[in-house]
Amino acid sequence: MAELKCILWDVDGTLADTERDGHRVAFNMAFDEAGHDREWDVPTYGELLAVTGGKERIKFDIERGDMCEMPYEEIAGLHARKTAHYETLIAEGRIPLRPGVRRLLEEAYAAGITLGVATTTTPSALDALIEHSLGSEWFDRFAVLAAGDIVPAKKPAPDIYTYAMEQLGVNPENTLALEDSENGWKSAHAAGLKCVVTVNDYTRDHDFTGADLVVSELGEPDGEAVNVLQDLHTLDVHHIKLSHLKAIMHD
Ligand code: XBP
Ligand code: MG
After folding, report:
1. Which residues lie closer than 8 Å to 106 by C-beta, 6 or more apart?
2. Is 1 a residue whose pLDDT tops 80?
């Protein structure tokens, strides 16, 4: 039985559905602008999401022969342009938060739970989402923003979660992760965390065996009941509340 002291949030797919209409579109804008004859359509991007990290994803597509060879500096430059396009898309307000995200963040913050972010995405892309989708006050409300290349090994390695907990001085037994993907869940699990997963169109069929709770979304009190796909703690769920997260830790 452990007390819930800290919640670490994944970003892409968890805070907001950023992949299909945000990151994917931005990659294609950068490819087009640089004269690369390559477009990542919706299903192709779904396959490529198995590789975490934008630069790593481009490199993988090159190595499998679907993009022309280029030196790493060029990949990094291409990715920097992609990030700039992504930030513009986010600033245009195209990607809302997922249902229940703001509600649960507010509830946890008001309850004095330490909140942090553990993501593979680039720090400036995360900053854009916080500024334009969440609100600037969250730069102070999150006690740590752990993102991108700050650790050498990205998810599914545990490193980004371990780094975030070290920064906060919290233990894994008091920390819960909110994730959306198999790589994210594996990363949190490898770091010793309990984990609630909110799936999306790209991740619904991923393997979440062992995850504490897998639901369609966090949901809202006045909305429809969320779809519960896996529940190791036999919780009574209509929408995910802080009390559910506490119950998972206590179990
Ligand atoms: C998701 C990722 C990222 C994004 C693209 O991160 O794997 O690579 O797809 O962002 P998470 P970058 O789910 O951990 O938030 O291009 O900035 O890497
Ligand atoms: Mg994610």
Report:
1. none
2. no
Active-site positions read 10, 12
* pLDDT at residue 27 is higher than 80: yes
For residue 82 the two structure tokens come to 């992609």
* Ligand 1 pocket residues where CB is under 6 Å: 10-13, 19, 23, 52-54, 83, 119-122, 125, 155, 181, 184
Which one of 121, 151, 195 would you pick to mutate in the ligand 1 pocket, going by the greatest count of ligand atoms within 8 A of its CB?
121
Pocket test of ligand 1: the residue of 97, 120, 134, 200 to mutate, having most ligand atoms within 8 Å of its CB, is: 120
User: Are 95 and 89 in contact, with CB atoms under 8 Å apart?
Assistant: yes
Q: What is the pLDDT of residue 57?
A: 98
pTM attached to this predicted model: 0.98
- How far away, in angstroms, is 177 Cα from ligand 2 center? 11
Q: What is the dihedral of CA 127, 9, 120, 210, to 10 degrees?
A: -170
Please compute the mean of the pLDDT values over residues 81-109 and round it to a whole number.
97
Q: How many C-beta atoms lie closer than 10 Å to residue 245's C-beta?
A: 23
Helix axes 72-91, 54-63, angle to 10 degrees: 130
